[in-house]
Amino acid sequence: MKEGCSQTTHATGILYLILTDCALRLVLRAGLRVAPSLSSSLLYRAKTAGRSLIHAARAATACLGCGVQCAALLNDDCWATCTATTLVGSTVIQAIYLALAVDGLFGEKLGRRRGVVAAAAVGLPAALLARQSIARYALYWALFCLTKQSLQMALWRYRGWRAPPLPITLPLLGNLVPAAPAFMRFLLRQAKRHFSKEGLFLFWPAGGAPLCVIAHAKAARKILSDRRTFPKGPDYRRKFGFVFGDGLVTAEGTSHARARKLLAPYFRPDRLEAKGVLEAFQSSLSLLKEGDVDVQSFFHLATLRAFCRCLLSEDVDAWKRDHNDGRGDVARFVAEACSFGSLVVGEHMLFDLPMSETLFGRVRKLRRMRDSLRSQVLRPVVEQRRRLAERPDDCLTALIEHQSIDASFTDDDVLDQLVTLIGAGHDTSAYFLCYACFELARNPEIQDALREELSTDDDDLFRRVVRETLRLYPVIPMVTRVASCATTVVDGCGKEKAVPQGARLIVPFFLLNRLPEVWGSDAADFRPDRFLDINGGVAAPSQGFLPFGSGARTCVGQSLALLEARIFLRELLDEYELRPVPGFAPIIKAGVSLTSAGGVRVRLVKRA
Ligand code: HEM
Question: Is there a contact between 105 and 55 (Cβ–Cβ < 8 Å)?
């Protein structure tokens, strides 16, 4: 029996190493999340910390209990003397303890029943904790990490991939230390220094599997246009789906094709009315005043109003959550909820964190906002539209009427599509306009020429300004895909690199748009005239410049974004002269959208 026990101990030792490895990775990622949230507000910080403490205490108590139970179960004497009854009894108690532990940590995510199953699965490895010396264990664990990551790296090297050279890629931490302050800038530095020719390389997030970075035009186009081999993947659907459900952005396969077919016609340029966009601008103008202004909130509200007028025939300012809401209160709530959602989902995607409400206070806040938006704001809007005898011909009516021909299209599907369109339909345009204003303020000659052109029907310079702004500030800075089967991609040197099934890929537009090899030594400068020699519509695909994506998942709202840009810039430049705010530069943060931590400040001077 003793020999059997020692074999069991070795086996469980290995299991336990793996388990602890996973646990520490989770803790590390959770740490990444906690760090930014700590700075958000004192009250929020205290509340979150309090809740986490309670969860941790519950889990720790339960874990301790379960450790003792497991140790007793595996104890040699116990094995020798225990009867079947005591063995079963201990196992039951152990399962209860573990269920409590797992419930404390992941309860809301897993649900009770799955929690108990998961708890049983970690029972034996946990027992080892009670029997091993911590120092010896730590050594094992470090060796295990080193070996595992070295093996993984060797395997990827065999497939033809390279990662940033040591000491940047560390076991467990991966590229976290140098990349954490500014992820996109880190990738850009690596691409320039080490991978300028091949363009394809690996990024190692902390503790996770590597991301294949696709900073080469041809490979990027191939990946975006082949949606069967490179779908958005389950992780994307899980994280974005937390907010968007099964909307146009997250849906795959027939569900995506159905939504696209239904909604895309409403985004055609001939269906979009300039009048709605102009009214949205004019009703928001009071938010602007002379002086140094952060233009973010203005553009967020104005683009939200424009989207709702043009695509939903709705006045967002008239929406209410309850009777106490004044005019415009809900519009501000919707704009805030969308920006917050974009930030949270972006960070969780990038750092591969679960959308767990138990672990992350911000996810709980996001869920509350999402539920309130759906049930208190949008559901009444849908119901009201349903009751109308004569409905306007727009996206909302199309969604409602589709229910009568497709019984599988539920009320929740209608809300998913609405939340998706509202979310995707104003955040992006708003950030784009912010950065356009920032660059126009710094380039007065271009600003004057554009003002003049916008008062006519010409749009040559306008198109170049749009392209150059989106080149330097791609408001969707990257998109992610997953390899649905083993395949290959060709790098800039013409070499094939193997991509195993399940590999995660990112196409970082931010990088593709700033590589000096492609755009020249002045790649970092704002120079719209560089597009005089480059053919293409809004994009320049041959250069890898794909601001609205490519293939079947290309942006459905491109024409609306351009219409808003033209009208908003024309009206704004007519009213104000834009000047730079001395000492201000945006602090770019790459999430779902390219946000700026300190806002986007511009000096507005009223024109005579
Ligand atoms: C300057 C403004 C905008 C930029 C740069 C932009 C960029 C993009 C990009 C790059 C994608 C592809 C994402 C991927 O492949 O994973 C995309 C998709 C999408 N965009 Fe936009 N977008 C903008 C404005 C808008 C507007 C105004 C709407 C209006 C509703 C919109 C709605 C969507 C939707 C629904 C998708 C998903 C399409 C699908 O998967 O079929 N976008 N956008």
Answer: yes
Which residue range forms the structural domain that includes residue 270? 214-606
Do 228 and 134 lie in one domain? The reply is no
- For helices 558-575 and 411-442, the axis angle rounded to 10 degrees is 40
549 lines ligand 1 (CB under 6 A): yes
Q: How many domains does the chain have?
A: 2
- Can you tell me whether residue 63 is helix, strand or coil? helix
Residue 226 and residue 85 share a domain? no
Strand partners, 75: none
Q: Tell me, using a 6 A CB cutoff, whether residue 424 lines ligand 1.
A: yes
Contact 461, 453 (CB under 8 A): yes
Q: Give the Å distances, CA to CA, from 71 to 55, 66, 119, 132, 423.
A: 24, 8, 16, 11, 51
Q: Are residues 152 and 223 in the same domain?
A: no
pTM over 0.85: no
Tell me, what DSSP letter sits at residue 542?
G
Of 556, 562, 463, 549, which is closest to residue 508 (Cα–Cα)?
Answer: 549
Distances in Å between the alpha carbon of 112 and those of 89, 96, 108, 121, 289? 21, 11, 8, 14, 54
Provide the pLDDT for residue 187.
87
Give me the phi and psi of 75, to 5 degrees please: -55, 135
- Do 261 and 391 belong together in one domain? yes
Inside any domain, residue 333? yes
- Is residue 435 within 6 Å of ligand 1 at its C-beta? no
What residues of the chain score a pLDDT lower than 50?
A: 1-4, 36-41, 62, 65-66, 69-70, 73-74, 76-81, 103-104, 107-109, 111-112, 124, 127-128, 130-131
Q: Which residues contact 445 (CB under 8 A, 6 or more apart)?
A: none
Residue 220 and residue 80 share a domain: no
Q: Are 277 and 306 in contact (CB under 8 A)?
A: yes
Residue 126 · residue 20 · CB < 8 Å = no
- How confident is the model at residue 600, as a pLDDT? 94
d(CA 409, CA 378): 17
Domain end residue (candidates: 142, 158, 174): 158
Domain-located, residue 508: yes
Query: Which is nearest to 62 in space by CA: 29, 107, 19?
Result: 107
CA distances from 261 to 94, 273, 484 (A): 54, 21, 24
- Assess if residue 203 is contained within a domain: no
Report how far ligand 1's centroid is from the alpha carbon of 199 (Å): 25
Q: Rounding to the nearest 10 degrees, give the CA dihedral for residues 460, 465, 471, 475.
A: -120
Q: How many CA atoms lie within 13 A of 317 on its CB side?
A: 11
Q: Which residue's CA is the closest to the ligand 1 atom numbered 36?
A: 555
C-alpha 452 – ligand 1 centre gap (Å): 29
Is residue 133 domain-shared with residue 277, that is, in the same domain? no
**Which domain-ending residue is among 137, 158, 179?**
158
**Residue 606 CA to chain centroid, in angstroms?**
38
Count of residues in the chain: 608
- Helix (H) / strand (E) element for 481: namely strand 479-482
Locus of tokens 């994280």:
239
Q: How far is the CA of 598 from the centre of ligand 1 (A)?
A: 24
User: Which ligand 1 atom is at minimum distance from the Cα of 251?
Assistant: 40
